[in-house]
Amino acid sequence: MASAHEVGVVCKMIEKAYGKGMDVDTVRLFVRCLADVPGEALIAGTVHLITTSKWQPKISELREAAFGLMMGAHEKPTAYEAWQEVNGNKMHPATATWSDPIIERAIDTLGGLKAYGASDTDDEMSWRARFVSSYEQLVQRGMDNAVMLPEVRCAAQQLQAGKVNQLLAEVANKRRIPEETG
């Protein structure tokens, strides 16, 4: 996970590349929001953004770049490349092989490769459209899950488990301003 020093290095890189300084509060926010990102991935993602973007990257863009590199997002098949794999496996569903497990999950959401193989050839356009949509949603969900801060994931799980009141109390306690003594 990225140390405060590594995040500081990233902030300096961004300042130098874009000619705009960051105040202490901004650097603190970067440290807090990037602490769960592996340091090497964060630095590599920062270099990537600096070399490809005209604009100073936001925290969300740094997270996406770092996790995208870690997940091999640049090597994932496109939706249409994935569809070609589906077509290549259509006649042999029992021995189908996939370059990425998301391809199999996407076709399974539509009823499976066997169902696609048994369908009428006139239905191919419909299958392709639904597959592309399913595949792209699964890829995006994977990225969304990867970039989500652990504390946000925990809050989402609590909300899903019906612990709304507990979560609201915790948030209220964290936001409470300590009384001054004096």
Structure explained in plain terms:
This protein is 69% helix and 0% strand. The chain has 182 residues and is mainly α. It folds into two domains: 4-74; 76-146, no CATH class. Helix 1 (4-18) crosses helix 2, helix 1 packs parallel to helix 3 (39-52) and helix 5 (79-89) packs across helix 8 (124-147).
- SSE order, one letter for each helix or strand: HHHHHHHHHH
- The multimeric state of the shown protein is single chain
Beta-strand proportion = under 5%
Q: Provide the domain count.
A: 2
The unreliable regions are none
The helix fraction, in percent, is 55-70%
Global outline: flat
Rounded to an integer in angstroms, the radius of gyration calculated over CA atoms is 22 Å
Q: What's the rounded overall pLDDT mean?
A: 91
Nutshell version of this structure?
This protein is mostly helical. 69% of the residues lie in helices and 0% in strands.
